[in-house]
Amino acid sequence: MAKEISMQALQRLPLYLQYLRTLPVGKDTTISAKALGTVLGFGEIQVRKDLSAVSDGGKPKIGYGAESLIRDIECFLGYDNLSDAVLIGAGKLGKALLSYDGFRTYGLNIVAAFDSDPLKCGTDVSGKLILPLERMDNLCERMKIEIGIITVPASAAQQVCDRLIRSGIKAIWNFAPTHLSVPEGVILKNENIAASLAVLSKNLAEKERRS
Amino acid sequence: MAKEISMQALQRLPLYLQYLRTLPVGKDTTISAKALGTVLGFGEIQVRKDLSAVSDGGKPKIGYGAESLIRDIECFLGYDNLSDAVLIGAGKLGKALLSYDGFRTYGLNIVAAFDSDPLKCGTDVSGKLILPLERMDNLCERMKIEIGIITVPASAAQQVCDRLIRSGIKAIWNFAPTHLSVPEGVILKNENIAASLAVLSKNLAEKERRS
DNA sequence: TAGATTGTTAATCGATTAACAATC
DNA sequence: TAGATTGTTAATCGATTAACAATC
């Protein structure tokens, strides 16, 4: 089990995990790098290299034990202890994220949502309470929340971001379609729907041009 | 204006565009590579290299004309002619995407949504009609739709994907948290929320470890 | 044992950055 | 002109892939 992992390999780990979790549970379910790669569309050497960063449970001739590999990836990604997060902006996208049960299996626990609309406040989306924005700062500080998920309109995003950081947030997950600036030391991850779309469109156009 | 562009550069183009569109409109608004880079957190050489792939409008000492640069990027990404798409799965995420006006400015036009739930059918989300799944195949074929957006639960995703492909869809944008397999020649773009989260979590854990 | 499979070191490939010439 | 800025060619860096030794 090596120490170094590339950024790209890191992003592939959840995909391995996703697939492994669909496998039938059983003490001795095993899978080879080749089989994993075939399913996910990766080369087998790449799979082995990726997995070598998180696990040393691979056995020649046999492959990887599915259960132990799942545990190793979860452990490497820190999914074994949940991180608390708050979500700001209970619009359609915000509600969709609040309702997504899957986050728990990826180590994220959204403890509450905030919205500036008084009509939304007090209501509940999939068991998560929507609170007035005024209570955000206090709750973040009190609970030492480290992750803030921004799903407000682009025009309000920077303001919300600044406020989260003042409340001690260490990492921002930004779904608003705008660039945010954060001080040194705060982690910013932009969710980038337009970038994905660009890749898809370009591939499609390319394909059409060729045919 | 070169021909080649790297995958990563391609994904940065929408970010440039996003920022440029916030600039005050004016025939002679200009911006330098350095200024663009500072705002978006990229190096100035990278910005120049990226932009050289799409534009030849940069002028020494002056920079790039904002309006013409916007046009060049839009043209390069094919945003000047809208692509029609259908969306399958009018759950919370599906509705959020249907309501997102921004797609039009990124060259995507969702013409209709489909859902297997009869209660949802006939209703309308932000002006997009939700239709019964049975009508999907026919509409895709008739309108020669090329892009399918999948927002159904993971368990139904592969089935929906196969059906879209049978109806002539050329590109799949998958938001379901599962891996899909598509035949050679069909473009698949997985939207990968767990992968982003992994990067964020890892950076956060890394930061904590260091301090 | 032979064959399948892992894990690692070295080679290749692609993307970023540095250096610098061109130009307004 | 001098200085700022673009655009390109060459060098560096990082990620992927190939080759191969280790092992069950």
Question: Could you characterize the architecture of this molecule?
Answer:
The structure is a homodimer of 211-residue chains. With 211 residues, chain A is an alpha/beta fold. Chain A folds into two domains: 7-77, Arc Repressor Mutant, subunit A; 83-195, NAD(P)-binding Rossmann-like Domain (Rossmann fold), CATH 3.40.50.720. Helices cover 44% and strands 19% of the residues of chain A. Chain A is built from nine helices and ten strands. Chain A has helices spanning 7-20, 33-40, 44-52, 66-76, 92-99, 102-105, 136-143, 154-166, 193-210, and strands at 30-31, 58-59, 63-65, 83-88, 108-115, 124-125, 128-132, 147-150, 171-174, 187-190. A seven-stranded mixed beta sheet of chain A has the order 6-7-5-4-8-9-10. A three-stranded antiparallel beta sheet of chain A has the order 1-3-2. In chain A, strand 8 (147-150), helix 8 (154-166) and strand 9 (171-174) form a beta-alpha-beta unit. In chain A, helix 1 (7-20) packs across helix 4 (66-76) and helix 2 crosses helix 3. The longest helix of chain A is centred in the C-terminal third of the chain and has 18 residues, at 193-210. The interface between A and B is large, with 59 and 58 residues. Chain A binds a DNA duplex (24 and 24 nucleotides) through residues 2, 6-9, 32-34, 43-46, 48-49, 51-52, 56, 58-64.
